[in-house]
Specification:
With 76 residues, this protein is an alpha+beta fold. It contains two helices and five strands; from the N terminus they run αββαβββ.
Length: 76
């Protein structure tokens, strides 16, 4: 169990088509923390929306149409 707790977190990046549908299976990234995941998402963003998740938790969502990052707090 100790190995699992000390492992680097795995984040899933979902890319969305312009019509709002998920473009395909997620891409997996091993990153040290949420900030690193958000930084990496900005690098791969392109012109489509990207959603970042760790386990069941939504870390953030970048929407290039609105030129902003949405965090879970923005969804409330």
């Amino acid at each position: 169990m100790a190995d699992r707790e000390s492992a680097v977190p795995v984040y899933r990046f979902y890319i969305f088509e312009k019509d709002g549908h998920v473009a395909g299976p997620p891409t997996f990234y091993e990153l040290p923390d949420d900030d690193a995941a958000l930084t990496e998402a900005k690098k791969v963003l392109g012109d489509r929306t990207i959603e970042i998740r760790r386990g069941n938790r939504l870390i953030g969502r970048f929407d290039p149409q609105h030129h902003r990052a949405l965090s879970p707090k923005n969804f409330l």
